[in-house]
Amino acid sequence: MTQPCHQCGAALAPGATQCAYCGAVTQLAHDLSRQAHAQQQQFAYQQQQVALHHQVARQHDAKASIERTALHSMIWSALGLLCCLIPLFGIVGIVMALRARKMARKYGLVIPTTATIGLVLGAFSLLASVFSYTFIVLQEIKRADRIDQLESKVGAQALAQQLAPETACDLAELRLLKDGIGSVSGGSVEEFECTGKLQQNGDTAVLDDYSFDWTSHGRRHVKVCYRRGTRWTATGFRSTASCEEAEDVAALFTDDPGNAKPASSEGPAAPPPSTP
Question: pTM for this one?
Fold first, then answer.
């Protein structure tokens, strides 16, 4: 059964969306339009849900990446603070902390506390590196100045036939500052004290007690051996051996704990008492 046009009353063809006589839009056209609009809204909602799902997934992955980067930042910065002579650790920590903070802002996430800690520790580690290198440079300048001072002081006195106790002390300090002892560099010894007795036999001499501080290892006592060629020089150090024997201090002054033996802080060991 055909329906009449709601405007002119003319009979409408089946499925007509517009009256052939007056051009009025039919109810069917309105129904089809509402149905198409509803389908578009449904499709837009589905697309919105898919986009939201992808956004949540990206944020989840970004959050995991940010937290991982922030944690690595804190670890690198902590290493930089522990190894203050290696500024690279602190630099890596700062870079990773800044990267984590930038990613968090990009995805609208809360900046992890570990990123802030990594940034602060990295900055402190860089400052510690600067202070450490500055201290080392100043110590080396101080050591070089002291070496120049000693060389000027003993220049003429070392030519004398008789070795003076003061000159012997200066020569021992000069030898330690320039060449170190064992595997210990001259920059790691300080606070020299010359209290031993100097004994000379022709062109050789020995100072039976000379002490100094080995940085972070405590005070050490050694004997100092001297020989005169064109001038007096400190030829080496001994722990318990005589100057005619090979040096025996190398194992006492090494940074390898496995090879080190405890050195006496009371001076050279006394020989055992003779039995009757």
Answer: 0.59
